[in-house]
Amino acid sequence: MSQIPPQYREGVDDFTYDKVKEHMLYKSALNLLSKDHDQARKCLLNFENERSSGNVHNFWTTIEKKRYGDRIGIARADGVLRMLEGTTAGQQHVFNIQQQDLLGLYQSGDNDLTNTSMLSLSNILNHPGKRKSEGDHQPKTPPMRPRKVTVTTPEKPTLYKHTMQHLAKHFSVYVNNQCVIMKVDHVDLIPKEIRIWIVNVLSSEKDVFESNIMAPLNSTQAHPFQQICKTILYDFFSMTDKGPLNRFIGERKYTVDRIVPLFKAIQSVYREYSFDWIEVQASCIKDIKELFPEFDFTLNKVDGIGSKVSSNKEIIFIEVSGGPENAVMKHVKEDTEKLIKEAMFGLISLLRGYLGKGAEKARNICVYMVQCIGDRITLSEVCLDKKHFYKISQIKSAVLPFSFDEVEKFIEVFELLYALIDGLKKQTRELKKLMLADPISNVPTIRDWIWVPKNLSMWEATEVIYEDFDYEDLNYDYED
């Protein structure tokens, strides 16, 4: 007791005093390591018994818990500061993973906390000549994240939980337990020859980039998709020749400068498709009101719409959820729900001329959704699945590059665009088969299967009680 100065004894209870004393003894024993080796070893042997006591174990466990709690608090404060200063969505995603790691450390067992925080005295005693055992050099296993936390690709279409509740009765959609829409298995459809050409161009140095874009395919006949890629790459190269593009721009400029050129390139090659942009009024809502006289539903204007020129049917719906930086989650979730409504109405409008046909033959006819969240574009489709039930499938997502150093990111952008073009071709084939199908009696028709909410309140009606809504029934194990 005399080792602790009297001024530090006042107001200290016996338990705390004992802990401080044990800690000071432990420190003095370690200090002896630099002096007389035999004397130090003797002291450490005596101290080994004290260290194994329950009180010491509890003391160090409490200290380590507080330490990890402080780390979590610091990380949270740092995350808030970064968001206030304009944290990018990618940084925020890393921050979320760090939070999960810290939480996993904090929730680990007390024994792990104590054992990792204190020196291994037995190693020092048994091997006086070296401080660490060979096992100490082995890589450590990273901490487990909390259960039921699905790490997802950032900036993906996401729904509110209450939205997922009322969609569950009429929509089949793969989501994880954070209501992020997950991707289904996707097979790359780009022809091998085109892919080789794309990889060769994207691998080029800047001084030969333009000349490699002009390189023809090995086949004598040019592929239409190659021309689409050329148009997009030329446009991007001209914009980034003097430096990277500005990421801190608003939604309108982002749409015009980066999103519109992608679909304008498609329109320039495939003239049967036309795109309109910025606050477009969806005409499909008129068809819905004619089919369902009791329908009382308004739809806000759309950021972009793709139509089939020959039929004037809207088959691609595009929403841009803010600029390329700092996407607002409220905006993202509202746009995701809005896109689902738009696509459902577009699909019904597309099938309006086939109401008497067999419903089963319409299951492969899709309408497409494109949502731009931050610098990521995501392509999804909607189709009839069964009576009064629709199926939503996410097909592909890609990140837009903002400098020539990231030009290789266009490989995924081109995969997404090719998947869209292939889907549109499939839609044309399926509509033709549906029109030519023999009339069949006593089977459900498209008229029997289509469904719309009568009004906004019906759309938002919580037909599934949240406490009973089992997300385990939804398949959210798909890779994203």
Can you lay out the helices and strands and say which pair or pack?
Blueprint: H1 14-31, H2 37-51, H3 54-84, H4 89-106, H5 110-117, H6 121-126, H7 161-167, E1 171-173, H8 192-202, H9 209-213, H10 224-240, H11 251-269, E2 273-280, H12 284-291, E3 302-308, E4 313-320, H13 329-350, E5 366-373, E6 376-386, E7 389-399, H14 410-436, H15 446-449, H16 456-459
Helix pairs in contact: 1-2, 3-4, 3-5, 10-11, 12-13
Region (Disordered): 126-151
Explained architecture:
The protein has 480 residues and is of the alpha/beta class. It folds into 2 domains: 6-137, no CATH class; 161-473, no CATH class. Helices cover 46% and strands 12% of the residues. It is built from 16 helices and 7 strands. Strands 1-7-6-5-4-3-2 form a 7-stranded mixed beta sheet, with helices on both faces. Helix 10 packs antiparallel against helix 11. The longest helix is centred in the N-terminal third of the chain and has 31 residues, at 54-84. It is extended, with a radius of gyration of 31 Å. It starts with 13 loop residues before the first helix and ends in a 21-residue tail after the last helix. Residues 101-122, 130-139, 144-149 and 461-480 have low confidence and may be disordered.
Which descriptors would you attach to this protein?
480 residues, alpha/beta, 2 domains, 12% strand, single chain, 46% helix, extended, 7-stranded mixed β-sheet
Write a brief structural summary.
This protein is an alpha/beta fold and 480 residues long.
Return Rg in Å.
31 Å
Report the portion of residues in β strands.
5-15%
Structural class assignment: alpha/beta
Strand order, main sheet: write it out: 1-7-6-5-4-3-2
User: Can you write the helix and strand succession as a string?
Assistant: HHHHHHHEHHHHEHEEHEEEHHH
What is the makeup of the main sheet? Answer: 7 strands, mixed
Nearest-integer average pLDDT: 77
Poorly predicted ranges: 101-122, 130-139, 144-149, 461-480
**Number of helical runs?**
16
Q: What is the number of independent domains?
A: 2
Strand elements, count: 7
Report the principal-axis shape: extended
Q: How widely separated are the two ends?
A: 62 Å
Helix content: 40-55%
Region (Disordered): 126-151
